[in-house]
């Protein structure tokens, strides 16, 4: 069964590997080591330092994905490692708890309004 934690691991690893593949293509096309072209050669392309972000993020995403693969409980608060039934049950419990809190606050407001109206009527008499 696919859980949110599993999906996040796959996204991180897939993105990292994809960025590393793009980095390999950039190295093979000689676009990644930053260079500036001094001569108007048609085979030379100006590149800057921002090109290094692609392999850096590739390594970063892959390592985070592998770390999440080894320890899926690291991001447990954001991406729960629960199956669909457990998530549904947890959502229902949270929803019922919120409704109970709303009902209690509504009852408190109703009793406050009732007391204020009783005081107002008693003052008028």
Could you write a compact summary of the structure shown?
With 125 residues, this protein is mainly α. The chain has helices at residues 4-28, 53-70, 84-124.
Q: How would you characterize this protein structure?
A:
The chain contains three helices and no strands. The N and C termini lie far apart (69 Å). The protein is mostly helical. The chain has two domains: 1-81; 84-125.
- Give the overall average pLDDT: 80
Distance between the termini: 69 Å
Instruction: Indicate the overall shape.
Output: elongated
The assigned structural class equals mainly alpha
Number of strands: 0
Taking the sheet with the most strands, its summary is:
none
Helix content: 55-70%
Number of helices: 3
Percentage beta strand: under 5%
Count of domain modules: 2
H/E series, N to C?
Answer: HHH
Radius of gyration: 30 Å
Low-confidence stretches: none
Topology, element by element:
Blueprint (H helix, E strand, L loop, with lengths): L3 H25 L24 H18 L13 H41 L1
Helix pairs in contact: 1-2
